[in-house]
Amino acid sequence: MDLAKIRAVSSPRISPDGGRAVFVHTTMDFEEDEYKGDLWLADLETGKARQFTAGRHKDGNPCWSPDGGQILFTSRPPAEEGEEKKKPQLYVIDVDGGEARKITELKKGVEAPRWSPDGKSILFISEVERVDRGESDVKVIDRLSYKFNGRGFYENHQKHVFTIPAKGGKSRQVTEGEYDAADAEWMSDGESIVFVSNLQPDADVVRRYYLYRVDAKGGEPVQLTETLMSISGLSPHPEEPLIAFAGHDYSRGSGTNSDVWTLVPGEEPVNLTSGFDQDLGTKLSCDVRVSSPSTMPAWSGDHLYFTSTYDGDSCLYKVHRDGGDVEKVLGGTDHSVEAFTVTEDGRVAYTVLDATKPIELWSWDGEKSRQITDLNKGYLKKTELMPHEEFTFTSDAGHTVQGWLMKPPSFDASRKYPLVLHIHGGPRGAYGNSFLHEFQVLAAQGWAVTYINPWGSGGYSEEYQAELPGHYFEQDYDDLMKAVDVVMERNPWVDAGRLGVTGGSYGGVMTNWIITHTDRFAAAVTLRSITNWVSFFGCSDIGWTFGKTELGGVPWEMGEVFMEKSPIRHVANAKTPTMIIHSEEDYRCPMEQAEQLFTALKFLGVPTEFIRFPGESHELSRGGKPKHRRERLEHIVRWFKEYLD
After folding, report:
1. How much of the chain, in percent, has pLDDT values that exceed 70?
2. Catalytic residue selected from 197, 505, 617, 621
3. CB–CB of 401/454 below 8 Å?
């Protein structure tokens, strides 16, 4: 229930003059079983923060107007009893206070709003129907992309760019057609908009993207890039016809590091960070994070700022617009940078990840950092949170593996303790200097928790993460098993007879692989997992792309490989008591994956429980309904108590 006490800070946005920052303050309301978010304003000079909006409970996506006088945001008012869940709409409020003005009322709501350079218009993304099907609830599916985790079924909808006058009025649909538009941003002239999409006939299959520009009044989009890429974080220069973005060309498959690129329309993209052997973005796992703005890249003078995760820390870096050496700006000593915004003269407002503290707002004036909010001060005073100890070891393949060990409270080295191995998702996720409430819950039961970044994890070199596709459950499995051996060798207080293992997504399929290849663990809890790569290929919202990139082909050509890498093929070896936790609206790792494993284990007589959460997606552990998040943790604790205590 500590989840009800933790206050989350997200979506920091610094004012144009650098004097203030707006952010979203979120709490979990267990009585109403929902998240409540309001906008807060922080004075970066005095360090004082105050609540700025109230009453709607679902405020987010704040954006300063170019002159700093107004703030644009989205809000979803609470639904009345029996009323359908409402969609987010756009609001504008004066910084000096007063009532917020609602400026949209769209059936499908709005997302990702942006002010025009002159402050007179706002662009946003909204869904439109492809075909008017009247009142029919029948789904007519003619595309591979017809559902997505967290979004649900959208077989008859496309996401497109809209604009609306900042004072309100009629909205204009800017893009239209059989494609989704994403990451839309204004160009500096205010007359055109750039966005990410794929307008090619085979876009439904390849799921890779180009950069486009379209007139703000509408018309045919102009394709700006020629190479299919992973593209995100568009950042047009504030004064020039120059676009920065993050992305990669899949030269090392799905494990390719992203770089910072710039593009002058009509010319070839320029890679500014080709010599920087780190991936971009904040990759550290955190289960008290609320959605924050893109962490890459952002203009400040002649530099582009971006985040990158390496060796368990997420730091803020910058690179000159002409390329050259990448310079670290913030992070890496006592905290990790989560999300940030930066002014033209280099002042930064950012949120901080820390292993023993929930996320707070900080600022940097170009010389020193300063903590601005301390919203969790009361919680931290009353709660014993355990630090983690870093350790490393050399794998059998010769690379260094980084890991952490969290001891239980009131630790006594003369006693014996259970140990739980926790495996991250991704597979290119990463553990490190970040708060994980779930780990604190496990440690509080009297168990040690260990977690590592095995071969294939993000947050290291490109080779480290790019060598995993096509080689699942080989070196990554060996790293995890050796990590347990190393922890036990270096900590004789670990009870070898009371080992537990758990993990979600990639961590879930690895947990399934572990229980079908070793019986060293006394108990397992597999979360939102994959069991069968063949059926995953056809049932997951990303199955045909992820299955191909991660295993190297398609099941009708590589059937034996797909099955050999499937835990269900080896399930007859399983002896470990296993709890299966899955969400019924998980379209990433569909429910049928969990059903296959449960049926097989039950049929084989392995102690098994199957916990299904209705109305939840793949994001249950990080963004599920508060009561479901609590019950999920209660089930995990109950299962491990039965077999580890």
Report:
1. 99
2. 505
3. yes
